[in-house]
Amino acid sequence: MVQNPNTAGAKGETFGYRKWISEKHEPEVVVIGIHGFCGASIDYNNFGQHLLKHQPTTALYAYEIRGQGSDPIYARRGDIGDPRDWYRDLFAFTGLVRERHPDAKIVWFGESMGALIAAHAWRQAPPDQAPCDGLILSSPIVRFRDDIPAWTPGLVQIAATTLPLARISLDMLAGDQNVQMTQKSHHAEQAVKNPYHIRQHTLRLIGALSSHINGMNHCATTFRKPVLILHGDKDFFNNDSDVRGFVGRIPPGTSATYRNYPNAYHLLMYDEKKDAIFRDIERWLKRIRHQRPEKS
Predict the structure, then answer these.
(1) In what order do the strands lie in the sheet with 256-261?
(2) Other CB atoms within 10 A of residue 75 CB
(3) 223 in any annotated domain
(4) Total domain count, the chain
């Protein structure tokens, strides 16, 4: 693993990234990791180590997301001025990877919030220019749960317009529930352990997440490359039925694979089931490696 080189994002700004790449093999597939809310590129370490051991012809790059805890601009942590910058950063990073590995297939791998960014970036790409060769969406939040207090999504959108820079904690939105993220950890524990955790986010960032969640089912209708969707059956944010509804909106001509893991939670790359999950991803990536390029 190589840590903390820099790459240019939207507006010429630079962000750190990590990469897991074999010294002996030129990659045939490169996975680009897009981490989740209150996450960082290091969250991909378990998966990167798995690839180095079991599938060394697949490389993994993961970059730090704008507005999260490893953003080099400290004042911007917990905020996003223009959500489209998330897409621009992803497009710029994908361009960097393509320059370094021009013959490799490119797969976007978004976790949680990263899955929202990947899906919406795909939707924003020109229809005749697929930005990647496949999508992995791990624990995507595809709709608001029915038992979320009715005021939350609507109030957040109003507040994000009237008080965009006011900051609140995610715990407040969750009704101070200590959300279980794996079999052995809860959100509050991770907040204490992770040096990149952000205590409060601006209302406009929370509002951006809300609008991204609302748009996920429409994003599914635009997918034109193979998609792998991963979901833990005990995920706090969505249930199996929610995610199957999302998968059902993917066009019939697009290869869509859905994996639901009983007794698994939201952070699948840290879950007790992670080895089985990584093997499923590994098998799916082998199919991506062997798929034929489309005729122009």
Answers:
(1) 2-8, 14-20, 58-63, 29-34, 105-111, 134-138, 227-232, 256-261
(2) 7
(3) yes
(4) 1
Q: Residue 86: which domain range?
A: 2-145+215-290
Q: State the Cα–Cα distance between residues 263 and 252, nearest whole angstrom.
A: 29
**Whole-number Å distance between alpha carbons of 72 and 247:** 36
The CATH code of the domain that includes 122 is 3.40.50.1820
- pTM, full prediction: 0.90
For residue 260, being part of any structural domain is answered with: yes
Residuewise pLDDT in 10s, the chain (296 residues): 555 566 655 566 789 999 999 999 999 999 999 999 989 999 999 999 999 999 999 999 999 999 998 999 998 999 999 999 999 999 999 999 999 999 999 999 999 999 999 999 999 998 888 999 999 999 999 998 877 655 566 666 666 677 677 777 766 655 556 678 777 665 555 555 667 788 888 989 988 999 999 999 999 999 999 999 999 999 999 999 999 999 999 999 999 999 999 999 999 999 999 999 999 999 999 999 887 655 43
- Assess if residue 232 is contained within a domain: yes
Structural domain contains residue 162 = no
